[in-house]
Design a protein that fits this description.
The protein has 24 helices and 15 strands. By secondary structure, it is α+β, with helices and mostly antiparallel strands.
Length: 668
């Protein structure tokens, strides 16, 4: 009994100690509601968690950002649903729940790193010391001057800074899961039991459910994992990898539909277009990466390195090629490569740990002991420094004193249903406090159409002077059915101060709220609301190619202001259904400032009518009514969610039966 207890203590102490150290470092975050970090994108994540807590909308339409979109396209939902459940379960605000959950996942990062190191063959001492180094050093600051400067020095906590200052909770959480998934995958391929396959699949599926950046880091890790294997091992494990991959996909698809994955990938590629360093340079870099992997793999096998070190080195090469190639030479192999420097730290520390362990084993005990003591002292001082650094960036704030809250509060009380255009940090945070739709929003990979980017660009960037800027801005704001716009000048309290010509609307539009250099202007509308009646001939038919391509926009906006045209009312019936009423004549159309999607259908006075997109990617209805017109709009995600749920349940059932049969055979 005593030997079992000692073994249990020996097994549990390292991960528990690592968790405790990291929790001690970020302790203040565990009980903080709002941070004094308004430039952070976490405001958008709080908006999603708040919306989930109010609506639980996994397969519903989300009307808040960019004219609306299927909720599943906004962002991988795993973390936000967890936050909403925690907020509801503990009776706390989504902000408090978000910081509680992300502080825990940050602290668990060192624990899953430890398990990954152990799974790959590291002994307990090596894995524990590597976990400590991972906890209190950010090696990316050594290789990347820009990261080092942003972090304030190579001794500061980059991963914690990313979480607290920039709001990278999903990425930090996702990377924690990446390490867990890789460890469980390796164990599954060694144990070869149905239960281990299922556990690995669930861990792998959790990553894309939480964060796309971490998902790409996982794909890079899986690539390195396969390349690191020896020829016979790769062939032997191929059927098992296919099985685990299939189960992983089945578990992930109900939360990240294949159509969402496809659109997100295409949007990410489009966002990155034109950013690669030189014509064809990324293709050359990719070929060089392939050659490097082949040659280094051959060298590592020739040196008879075990699988663990081989994987660590190759994973570092893959992630380093992506990150360092972008930040040193501006060669971009994948979209947003700079974001992967935190993921790169995982194989960096693993590689260093395996190398140090190999050297360590060659030393005598007389040398080993002082080295371990010295490393422990360094980690202790670094942990103290990290805690001080954490306290310097984890600063509580009174949210009611912040511009973002004050403008959102005013808009929530005074603007009802119509979109507003907000700048910078105000756009990030507004929907954490209200559900007023925005012309823009978060996040670019979610867009159904790039038209909101074209329409908002001249508003933020301006054009030549105040008068021209005001003219173009008003055209686009009216076309977007915007009811208000918030603008800040050079002394704005907004974190980003995005507007050029910030005083363009002075004496041109009514100011309805003002504080210092920040103002909200009301947009004059003849008929405010999302449904506008115009002549069919005035509909914008061709997508504008730029913010000054307004040839078709001018007659459309003129029609919006035409007092001879009827006014239509618009109201949401539920999350997926809206009602439009008006008195229409033949030849008149209804432009609805909601993003067109194939899932929309409509009826007019009970009869089905076509739903098409105009050049602005808004919904156009031509009901051909003569008199009272009762239009019902309905959005449906189609059969895809139900199909994916059925596949997931069948897969889970089959795996459960296999697990029980295997367990029964083992007992027999």
């Amino acid at each position: 009994m005593q030997s079992r207890a000692r073994a249990a203590i020996a097994a549990l102490f390292p991960p528990l100690f690592l968790f405790a150290v990291n929790a001690w470092i970020c302790w203040r975050l565990l009980h903080t509601e709002y941070l004094d970090q308004m430039q952070s994108i976490e405001g958008s994540f709080l908006a999603l968690a708040t919306y989930i807590e109010n609506h639980w909308p996994l397969y519903d339409w989300f009307p808040v950002w960019y004219g609306g979109m299927p909720f599943g396209r906004t962002y991988p939902p795993g973390l936000h649903y967890t936050v909403a459940i925690a907020a509801r379960g503990f009776g706390i605000s989504p902000a408090s729940a978000y910081h509680l959950i992300t502080a825990l996942t940050y602290s668990l990062g060192a624990v899953t790193f430890y398990y990954l190191a152990r799974a790959l063959g590291g002994d307990r001492t090596m894995a524990f010391l590597a976990g400590m180094v991972f906890s209190v050093f950010s090696p990316s600051t050594l290789l990347l001057p820009a990261v080092r400067a942003d972090a304030g020095g190579f001794l500061n906590a980059r991963r914690l800074q990313a979480l607290v200052v920039y709001g990278e909770g999903p990425n930090v959480t996702g990377l924690m899961l990446v390490m867990l998934a890789l460890a469980l995958l390796h164990r599954a391929l060694r144990k070869r039991t149905p239960a281990s396959y299922l556990l690995a699949s669930l861990a792998l599926a959790a990553v894309p459910i939480v964060n796309w950046t971490a998902t790409i880091a996982l794909v890079l890790g899986l690539t390195a994992y396969v390349v690191a294997g020896e020829g016979r091992a790769i062939l032997a494990n191929l059927p098992r990898l296919v099985l685990i991959g299939a189960v992983t996909a089945a578990m992930a698809f109900p939360f990240e539909l294949p159509s969402t994955i496809r659109s997100t990938f295409l949007n990410a590629v489009s966002m990155e277009a034109g950013q690669s360093g030189g014509s064809g340079s990324h293709r050359i870099a990719f070929l060089l990466l392939v050659v490097a992997l082949v040659l280094i793999r051959a060298l590592l096998i020739r040196l008879r390195l075990p699988f663990g070190p081989r994987f660590a080195v190759l994973y570092f090469i893959v992630t380093g090629w992506v990150v360092l190639g972008a930040m040193w030479m501006n060669v971009r192999l994948i979209p947003l490569p700079e974001r992967f420097h935190i993921a790169m730290e995982i194989p960096m520390v693993l590689t260093a740990a395996f190398a140090a362990a190999a050297v360590f084993r060659m030393w005598s005990p007389r040398v080993r002991v002082p080295v371990v003591v010295l490393l422990s002292i360094l980690c202790l001082f670094q942990a103290i420094h990290y805690r001080k650094y954490a306290r310097s960036i984890i600063r509580k704030t009174d949210i009611a004193r912040k511009l973002e809250y004050q403008e959102a509060e005013w808009l929530g009380w005074n603007i009802h249903g119509g979109p507003v255009l907000l700048p910078g940090s105000t756009a990030f945070w507004a929907n954490a406090f209200n559900e007023e739709p925005q012309v823009t929003g978060c996040c670019l990979q979610s867009l159904i159409s790039n038209q909101p980017l074209i329409s908002s660009y001249p508003i933020f960037a301006g054009y030549e002077n105040d008068a021209e800027s005001a003219g173009y801005s008003l055209l686009w704001l009216k076309a977007e059915a915007a009811q208000a716009i918030a603008i800040g000048g050079p002394n704005s309290r907004d974190a980003y101060r995005e507007f050029k010509y910030p005083y363009r609307f002075k004496d041109r539009l009514p100011v309805v709220w003002s504080d210092g250099d920040d103002s909200i202007y009301r947009i004059p509308e003849r008929a405010p609301g999302l449904a506008r009646v115009v002549h069919s001939a005035d509909i914008v038919r061709h997508p504008p190619v730029s913010g000054v391509d307004v040839t078709e926009l001018r007659p459309f906006v003129a029609a919006l202001d035409d007092p001879a045209l009827p006014v239509a009312s618009f109201a949401w019936v539920d999350s997926n259904t809206a009602r439009v009423n008006g008195i229409l004549a033949p030849g008149q159309a209804i432009s609805v400032a909601i993003a067109w999607d194939p899932g929309w259908s409509a009826t007019a006075n009970g009869q089905s009518i076509p739903v098409r997109a105009d050049g602005l990617s808004f919904i156009v209805l031509e009901p051909n009514c003569s008199g009272a017109c009762d239009v019902r709009l309905h959005w449906s995600p189609g059969a895809e969610p139900g199909f994916m749920i059925a596949i997931a349940l069948l897969t889970l059932t089959a795996m459960a039966i296999w697990c029980f049969r295997d367990r029964f055979k083992a007992r027999a």
